[in-house]
Specification:
The protein has five helices and seven strands, in the order E-H-H-E-H-E-E-H-E-H-E-E. By secondary structure, it is an alpha+beta fold. It has a seven-stranded mixed β-sheet, sandwiched between helices. Helix 1 packs across helix 2. The chain is globular and about 35 Å long. The N terminus is likely disordered.
Length: 169
């Protein structure tokens, strides 16, 4: 794979992206449960915040119907390891989808990983999650493998998707 330019994706609505904090975790876990993601839970996200290799961001609504009731509309949790960014979880509230938040969150994580010298990003996605696969493909990810019985509840295989990063460029 050749190096791919990182492109900053801006959300289409009025949202800001910030570093995830402990104050965000109850909503992050709520989003995780709503999206059917692999369960990490509060303790795992909390531990991740203390890891220097963690790449964690949240999207916050600035205006609109989400602004008053919620402080987190979406999140990404990833980790840098041996020159690679592994995207662990990414989720957006159903009412905030299709506004570019997932792409913006993942794009920022990819950008940070590239600045820190990572040369590749990898993630797993349910074989049935076609919207997520389309998002990842639009951001330069390609299917590089499959993990049988990767997910539980419900059991399902995962596609492994990867993309090159700039490696500090």
């Amino acid at each position: 794979m050749s190096s791919v330019e990182l492109v900053r994706v801006e959300p289409s609505a009025d949202f800001s992206i910030a570093q995830m904090t402990e104050h965000d975790l109850l909503e992050v876990v709520e989003i995780e449960e709503t999206c059917g993601l692999s369960r990490w839970g509060w303790d795992s996200y909390r531990a991740e915040l203390d890891r220097p290799e963690a790449v964690t961001f949240v999207a916050r609504p600035g205006r609109g119907e989400l602004a008053g009731a919620r402080t987190v509309a979406g999140f990404v949790a990833a980790r840098l390891n041996a020159g690679e960014l592994h995207v662990n979880n990414i989720g957006v509230r159903p009412e905030a989808r299709r506004q570019g938040l997932g792409a913006a969150l993942l794009g920022l994580a990819l950008e940070r990983a590239g600045r820190e010298g990572a040369t590749r990003a990898v993630l797993e996605v349910r074989v049935s999650n076609l919207p997520a696969q389309r998002l990842y493909a639009a951001l330069g990810f390609e299917v590089v493998g499959e993990r049988r019985n990767y997910y539980r509840d419900p059991p399902e295989a995962a596609l492994v998707m990867a993309r090159p990063l700039g490696g500090g460029s």
